[in-house]
Amino acid sequence: MSAHTPETIADRPDFSRFAGVRNWIFDLDNTLYPRHTNLFAQVDRRIREYVERLLSLPSEDAQLLQRDYYRRYGTTLRGLIVEHGITPDDFLEYVHDIDHSPVQPDPRLAAAIERLPGRRFILTNGSRTHAEKVMARLGLGPQFEDIFDIVRADLLPKPHPDTYARFVAETGIDPTVSAMFEDLARNLEVPKALGMATVLIVPNGTEEILAEAWETEGSEGAHIDHLTDDLGVFLEAVLRGIPTA
């Protein structure tokens, strides 16, 4: 594989880059818990319902507008703020009022995160309340120093560069000794440019397919250092592969 091609665990990747990492930054949804849990599908439905209610739109039109705002603004919330001047509190409370029970405890992941050397953070486009509920279901909490949510980001979502700049400024981290874990490739472009190691979390069973796609597409995946479909297993491999573990 080329230097810019993401490597899978099966390819025996070089984890030496992680030996110097002292800040471990995780996205929340579809990253700390697997995508097949479909938790975010509940949030997505609640967002559509909120748009329907706010703008008195049929469900189909609300869904189209929801997707348009997500594409143009990074989140539907940002689109509603810019286009309709809403305040975020009611939106965030409504869309995260979901059943979190599909998220199952993950002691393996919790143990791996606990062993990571240095500081650990969550950087999410969701709310702190939602993050805390997900973490409680997973068996996480004390492993993390802080949750940097969409409110802390002044409602400006990833991948906007200002969000990462605000996160770095508030936490005081050095990006060059940091690693970012995300389920959306576009949200890793800025972290990579800042000097972070980057890991893309993909749906179960797609790791090899995506690796092969990047292998043929060349530099399109240059901002992705590694990809995995199992975060816990990946972190265990990282811990085995770095001398500081």
From TrEMBL:
KW Nucleus (keyword) present: no
CDD domains: HAD_5NT
Alphabetical list of SUPFAM superfamilies matching this protein: HAD-like
Pfam families: Hydrolase
Single GO term (MF): hydrolase activity
UniProt KW keywords: Hydrolase
Signal peptide: none
Keyword rRNA-binding (UniProt): no
Entry-linked PANTHER family: HALOACID DEHALOGENASE-LIKE HYDROLASE (PTHR12725)
NCBIfam families: HAD-SF-IA-v3, Pyr-5-nucltdase
Protein known as: Putative hydrolase of the HAD superfamily
Organism: Kaistia hirudinis
